[in-house]
Amino acid sequence: MPPRAKTKLPPPSTAHSSTDAQPVLQQGAQLTRERILQAARELVLEEGASRLTLDAVVVRAGLSKGAFLYHFKTKRDLFVTLIDEMIRAFDAVQANHERRFAGDLWLALKRIPISAASAAWAGIGLLGNLGIGALLLGDLASVTRWSGTALIAAGIACLSFV
């Protein structure tokens, strides 16, 4: 028998090396975290913050309790994250709104996005479930004033001093 010719093998793939696997793992963890947050957002909007439970979130997200607890140690941690996220989103909407309607207060009040206003009211329910942390209260007070004004200007709510 003639000797077999040596074939040159391709270099080993680096796609599965430990250095390349780290970003993939981080992306997976980030996607899991986002699934949890999205499930919690949906539940708050559909059922209210008082009905938000760990079990409901993991079922909605299609994850295990262990996956939830890896990202959020307690339900309070999840609430704080949701509120922080809402405040940052609200600040961005408010800054854009102020740029668009600078100098015309009446038009600014009539044009406040209702979606931003109603999302802010959902944040109030989250705070109620947290026991209202002092640090968050100042930020949420601003959001509440702005969103309440939007709902009143749109004719969805009215002022009452009862």
From TrEMBL:
Residues 1-23 are annotated as: Disordered. Residues 30-90 form the HTH tetR-type domain. Residues 1-13 have a biased composition (Pro residues). It is found in: Cell membrane. Residues 14-23 have a biased composition (Polar residues). GO terms for molecular function: DNA-binding transcription factor activity; transcription cis-regulatory region binding. It holds the Pfam family TetR_N. It is a multi-pass membrane protein. It comes from Enterobacter soli. This is TetR family transcriptional regulator. Keywords: Cell membrane, DNA-binding, Membrane, Transcription, Transcription regulation, Transmembrane, Transmembrane helix. Transmembrane segments: none annotated. PANTHER family: HTH-TYPE TRANSCRIPTIONAL REGULATOR BETI, HTH-TYPE TRANSCRIPTIONAL REGULATOR RUTR. InterPro entries: EmrE-like, Homeodomain-like_sf, HTH-type_TetR-like_transc_reg, HTH_TetR. Residues 53-72 bind DNA. It comes from the Bacteria.
